[in-house]
């Protein structure tokens, strides 16, 4: 039952979603039963201690990892259905570009795989948008790590996905470029009405980019705080600093032994 409005992202619902890797004494419970809904067209940042299960949640939303229990639905559809429509895009930290293809070739391929018309002007415009104008013909090996990440982001956004899943996509990008991408890219996906999830270790990035910040406890991931980011929040305002302090406090609380003791704030 996909959303009929053109291009608009679906709501994402995780219902009693859980994941345990392995069995017996060696089993690792990565995600305890989790109930979370991400609103259509919103960008939600997921933050939490290293190894708490953030990527696992993202991979289950992407349909790359089967849940041990519970479900993920996107406006009622399974992740695989959106994958099939080319409506779901992901960028991971390790920016896996095809090494034998140019930047232009990699970005254009995303359109082909999504069964969309390959418009080279749109491809080059997206490459310019992530600051890679002039590198259209470069192969990934000729780019820095940060440039490869930017090319991977261009590859994601060129298809105008309805769902965008970003796992530390700016990890290898320097501060200046990151600041530029942080101001430039949200406008792109907001205009497209994309529903986006962003896993990040940066509280500043989470608050700067997201409409909502969900803070997880240490493994298995459970929600310890769920905070709304006011529109047009200035990070250096008193309100911005207070919100970042709240996220940071929830993160330290998330490291505590009793993850269930957290609070569930704004929705
Ligand atoms: N394929 C797998 N097989 C076995 N264990 C796994 C697998 N993937 C993840 N895990 C385990 O699940 C737990 C959660 O991992 P996950 O990558 O989701 O955490 P994360 O919060 O994204 O971590 P980080 O912030 O460090 O990237 C970890 O203990 C990890 O070792």
From TrEMBL:
<feature type="domain" description="ABC transporter">
    <location>
        <begin position="12"/>
        <end position="243"/>
    </location>
</feature>
<dbReference type="GO" id="GO:0005524">
    <property type="term" value="F:ATP binding"/>
</dbReference>
<keyword id="KW-0813">Transport</keyword>
<dbReference type="GO" id="GO:0016887">
    <property type="term" value="F:ATP hydrolysis activity"/>
</dbReference>
<keyword id="KW-0067">ATP-binding</keyword>
<dbReference type="InterPro" id="IPR017871">
    <property type="entry name" value="ABC_transporter-like_CS"/>
</dbReference>
<keyword id="KW-0547">Nucleotide-binding</keyword>
<dbReference type="Pfam" id="PF00005">
    <property type="entry name" value="ABC_tran"/>
</dbReference>
<protein>
    <submittedName>
        <fullName>ABC transporter ATP-binding protein</fullName>
    </submittedName>
</protein>
<dbReference type="InterPro" id="IPR050166">
    <property type="entry name" value="ABC_transporter_ATP-bind"/>
</dbReference>
<comment type="similarity">
    <text>Belongs to the ABC transporter superfamily.</text>
</comment>
<dbReference type="InterPro" id="IPR003439">
    <property type="entry name" value="ABC_transporter-like_ATP-bd"/>
</dbReference>
<dbReference type="InterPro" id="IPR027417">
    <property type="entry name" value="P-loop_NTPase"/>
</dbReference>
<dbReference type="InterPro" id="IPR003593">
    <property type="entry name" value="AAA+_ATPase"/>
</dbReference>
């Amino acid at each position: 039952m996909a959303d009929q409005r053109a291009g608009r992202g679906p709501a994402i619902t995780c219902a009693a979603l859980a994941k345990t890797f392995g069995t017996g004494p060696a089993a690792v419970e990565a995600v305890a039963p989790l109930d979370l809904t991400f609103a259509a067209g919103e960008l939600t940042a997921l933050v939490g201690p290293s190894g708490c299960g953030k990527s696992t949640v993202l991979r289950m939303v992407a349909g790359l990892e089967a849940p041990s229990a519970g479900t993920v639905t996107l406006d009622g559809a399974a992740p695989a259905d959106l994958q099939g429509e080319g409506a779901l895009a992901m960028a991971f930290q390790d920016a896996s570009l095809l090494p034998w293809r140019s930047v232009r070739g990699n970005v254009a391929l995303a359109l082909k795989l999504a069964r969309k018309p390959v418009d080279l002007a749109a491809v080059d415009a997206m490459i310019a948008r992530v600051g890679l104008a002039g590198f259209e013909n470069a192969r990934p090996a000729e780019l820095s790590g940060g440039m490869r990440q930017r090319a991977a982001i261009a590859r994601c956004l060129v298809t105008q996905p309805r769902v965008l899943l970003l796992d530390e996509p700016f990890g290898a990008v320097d501060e200046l470029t990151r600041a530029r991408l942080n101001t430039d890219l949200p406008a792109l996906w907001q205009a497209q009405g994309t529903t986006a999830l962003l896993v990040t270790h940066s509280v500043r990035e989470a608050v700067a980019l997201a409409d909502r910040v969900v803070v997880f406890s240490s493994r298995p991931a459970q929600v310890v705080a769920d905070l709304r980011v006011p529109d047009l929040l200035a990070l250096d305002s008193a309100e911005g600093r207070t919100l970042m302090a709240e996220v940071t406090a929830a993160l330290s609380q998330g490291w505590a032994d009793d993850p269930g003791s957290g609070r569930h704030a704004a929705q």
